[in-house]
């Protein structure tokens, strides 16, 4: 029997049972479809999680291997801070460093873990661990570290002051005409900046120390610098520590030149010579002076007594007859003047002799 509207009025119970069973089957089918859909989604999520975990594990293993290989391949590196360095600037720095070194960035925990796992082979790396703090990275190289630092400094970029950021340097506003209208006067007054109106614009009268090193930049200070189109800060890879074949030292050491080392060495030699002379202790630096002083004392003793020796005879002769000393000085003056001229002629003569000998060797050897 087909349950139509007319038959439902005549036979209500069979039609009610039919629609009830049909509704149950329909609901059951919908439930099965929804359950299968959820099951498929769960399976997909589980498989993605398993695959992602496997990929993550493989990535970590490759990252650890790369860290260790860099420390093995490069004997020196720079530990750099990367605060306030954007992705675009980092890409520019990587391009500038191409062919000169490699830049390594990553989580500090992973870098420490990789280094600790490599300490048995290279225990000197343990010195780096206390400095891997904050937002840092490594620049590995085999070139001169001073030149690498110069390249990093060349890639610093100017940046505006941001409210809440720590100031890396002092910022001072010089006396100037700001070009702003009088309506901004209250803004300067709030910052206690002395100004005056000059030709319809605000002029700063005195130099103002608007931001101090290490302090947080205020919202008003940042807004004023932005209105003046001033970018007081510059950010880039800042060298914090230098690692060179197991030794760690401050980047200030890179500022020391060979002339500085030579000057300090000579100053040390002079100090050693002075101390050695003061205590009469012979050293390589003091022996020439000790011998010279002793010889002078011997000459003094010989001049005052009858004791004599070969080197003192001429001195005694001059003391006995000073006119001989005057004649000796007069005779030595022309000879001293002629010595430079003779020295100039001698190299030319040597060159001529060398050319003649070369000619003889070139043609007379096989005749």
Automatic annotation (TrEMBL):
One record GO biological process: cytoplasmic translation
Superkingdom field: Eukaryota
UniProt biased composition (Basic and acidic residues): 343-353
Keyword Aminoacyl-tRNA synthetase: no
Classification via InterPro entries: Ribosomal_protein_uL10 (IPR050323), Ribosomal_uL10 (IPR001790), Ribosomal_uL10-like_insert (IPR040637), Ribosomal_uL10-like_insert_sf (IPR043164), Ribosomal_uL10-like_sf (IPR043141)
Transmembrane stretches, start-end: 16-46
Stretch list, region Disordered: 338-367
Example of a GO cellular component annotation carried by this entry: cytosolic large ribosomal subunit
GO molecular function list: large ribosomal subunit rRNA binding; structural constituent of ribosome
Key words of the record: Membrane, Phosphoprotein, Ribonucleoprotein, Ribosomal protein, Transmembrane, Transmembrane helix
Annotated ranges, domain Large ribosomal subunit protein uL10-like insertion: 161-230
Protein function: Ribosomal protein P0 is the functional equivalent of E.coli protein L10.
SUBUNIT field: P0 forms a pentameric complex by interaction with dimers of P1 and P2.
Family: Belongs to the universal ribosomal protein uL10 family.
Protein name: Large ribosomal subunit protein uL10
Source organism: Meloidogyne enterolobii
């Amino acid at each position: 029997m087909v349950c139509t509207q007319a038959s439902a009025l005549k036979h209500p119970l069979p039609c009610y049972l039919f629609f009830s069973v049909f509704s149950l089957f329909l609901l059951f089918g919908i439930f099965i479809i929804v359950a299968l859909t959820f099951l498929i989604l769960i399976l997909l999520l589980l498989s993605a999680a398993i695959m992602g975990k496997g990929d993550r594990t493989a990535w970590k293993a490759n990252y650890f291997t790369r860290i260790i290989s860099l420390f093995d391949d490069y004997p020196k590196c720079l530990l750099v801070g990367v605060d306030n360095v954007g992705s675009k600037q980092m890409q520019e720095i990587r391009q500038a460093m191409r062919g000169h070194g490699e830049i390594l960035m990553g989580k500090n925990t992973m870098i420490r873990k990789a280094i600790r796992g490599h300490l048995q082979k290279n225990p000197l790396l343990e010195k780096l661990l206390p400095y891997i703090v904050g937002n840092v990275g490594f620049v590995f190289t085999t070139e001169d570290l001073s030149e690498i630092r110069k390249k990093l400094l060349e890639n610093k970029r100017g940046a505006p002051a941001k409210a809440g950021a720590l100031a890396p340097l002092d910022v001072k506003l010089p006396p100037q005409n700001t070009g702003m209208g009088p309506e901004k006067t209250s803004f300067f007054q709030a910052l206690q900046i002395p100004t005056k109106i000059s030709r319809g614009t605000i002029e700063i009268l005195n130099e103002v120390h608007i931001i101090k090193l290490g302090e947080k930049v205020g919202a008003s200070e940042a807004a004023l610098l932005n209105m003046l189109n001033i970018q007081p800060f510059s950010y880039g890879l800042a060298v914090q520590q230098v690692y060179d074949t197991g030794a760690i030292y401050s980047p200030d050491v890179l500022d020391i030149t060979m002339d500085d080392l030579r000057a300090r060495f000579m100053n040390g030699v002079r100090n050693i010579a002075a101390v050695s002379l003061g205590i009469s202790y012979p050293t390589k630096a003091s022996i020439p002076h000790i011998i010279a002083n002793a010889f002078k004392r011997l000459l003094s003793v010989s001049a005052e007594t009858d004791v004599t020796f070969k080197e003192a005879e001429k001195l005694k002769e001059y003391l006995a007859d000073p006119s001989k000393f005057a004649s000796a000085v007069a005779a030595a003056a022309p000879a001293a003047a002629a010595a430079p001229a003779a020295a100039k002629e001698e190299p030319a003569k040597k060159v001529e002799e060398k050319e003649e000998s070369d000619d003889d060797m070139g043609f007379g050897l096989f005749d």
